[in-house]
Amino acid sequence: MAAPAELTPVLTAAEVDALIRSAYPQLNGDGDFYQTLEVFAGGCTVRLNAGERHLRPGGTVSGPSLFTLADIGGYACVLSHAGPDALSVTTNLDINFMRKAEAGPIDGHCRILKLGRSLMVFAADLVAGPDRRTVAYATGTYSIPPKR
Prior knowledge:
Blueprint: H1 13-23, E1 34-40, E2 43-50, E3 55-56, E4 60-61, H2 63-82, E5 89-97, E6 104-115, E7 119-128, E8 133-143
């Protein structure tokens, strides 16, 4: 089944990453920790390459790092589907932490639940480890600026 026209991407993963690097250079600093892996009709996949800087005591990836991954997933969805306006902002983000995430790749499988003129609602399933189990699940809303 084809995606509705409003769920057809207007940017590729590489274009989203370039826009994020330009608009938000402090996100990755001197690394390539947060990435957009894939953009598809109605969603995207983002990754956190979690290393030492993302760990809290006990070797667990910190909640703020996972929260950021979910937020970046929403940002990648809104940029890739509503257009390349870096002024889109988070208006809500709820997250449930399910289990411990260790250093390594953590993928955020994001899908758009609703895309309107001024708001986009999304869900993000964050998976990690060799069994790719859910470590956190988030839902959020992004505000889309009016077309200029």
